[in-house]
Amino acid sequence: MVYRQPLNRLKKFFQKLGFWRSIGFFTALFLSIILITKIAIAQQPVTLNLLMTAPDADPWRQGMIADFERKNPRIRINIIEGPNATNLIEDLYTSAFILGDSPYDLVNMDVIWTSKFAAAGWLLDLSDRITPQELAVFSPKDVEGGSYQGKLYRIPLRSDAGMLYYRKDLLDQAKLKPPETFEQLMNISKYLQRNDKAKWGYIWQGRQYEGLVAMFLEVLEGYGGFWVNPETLEVGLDRPETLKAIAFLKDTIKQGISPPGVTTYQEEETRRLFQSGQAVFLRSWPYVWPLANQKTSQINGKIGIKPMVHAPGQSSAACLGGWGLGIAKSTKHPKEAWQAIKYFSSREAQRQFILKAGYVPSRRELFTDPEIVAKYPHFPQLLEVVDRAVLRPPIAQYAQASDILQRYLSGALTGRMSPENAMQSAAEETRRLLKAGQGKKAA
Questions:
Q1: For 2, what's the count of Cα atoms within 13 Å in the CB-facing half-sphere?
Q2: Number of structural domains in the chain
Q3: Coiled-coil segments, which residues (predicted)?
């Protein structure tokens, strides 16, 4: 048959070649195949998996990721779109890490997740990968929010901080200056309400969820109080300053400055009320600014921002939010993951991302960049707010501590419990939680 001819020729070739020479030939051929395969594999791009909320995915793909992949053809970033709620994203990360077969290489973290993820051993320590000089370009509180027990686990990409929005037009018409203290905020609200300038004076987030904690932390710090000292683990929830903070919030409802339903509001309910022109003051996050200044907005061009008010002799506080990137300890590509983080946190990448997507930068110099300020004229004022940032306590048991505060604070604000009893119980539960955590650490 025809196919036997090549086989016979190959057989005669090896007979002439001899046994040992044949072995040598096959060995060289085998090694060549291995080498070629390795080269081919090495030329294949490395893919880094990154989980984030669905609304953030497209801005990332069309912005920083497209630019990064163009400049780094051997690395691909695969965004895995998760649910919109950030707490569900945290749950997905947690489940994957606990199961021990996490598909994620880069870890996109809310600032309050850092301590939990680091304490659990899920993140690589990045301390030796970046110099103090390189870290100095970021907001100090953003850097602190990426650290746990003296080590760095998260590089900040987007900052965020709570602030006070106010109706600049109404205050200007009444020849009033923006308030600096809680009492001034109350008095201005009452004055403008009496003169039918607005239905409500002050809107805040009072529902039992993480936003309640963020809002309350600003008021608490503004009265000189504290929640948990992360260094000593001292709990300050049953101190007089905490009761003053709760009394202020309850008084806004009692005196008709805030609506009775404010204890059921989250960010969007408060934004809609403010944006429809029904309120003088709003406590919220930077995302409100572009929405409130849309052409269709009733308050377009009529608002100002400033740091949160405070008690006399105390300082303003802005609860720090924001996102940053860490590297999963389980990744097989730590070198490439760090290369991606270096690019995403670079001045060039952040600057373009801000101009395209409008996010708040983590690099301080970008708040006053002329091109950015031309597009977002409120950024210099926003920097003043970010400079007043305070961290929610970076403790390993943060989620449980937050749940305790949410439950008892909601009970105090809605009248289900007296503020004294609520905060006493919250303080005791928090102390037990932290003590149990210390016991586990010692064991």
A1: 0
A2: 2
A3: none
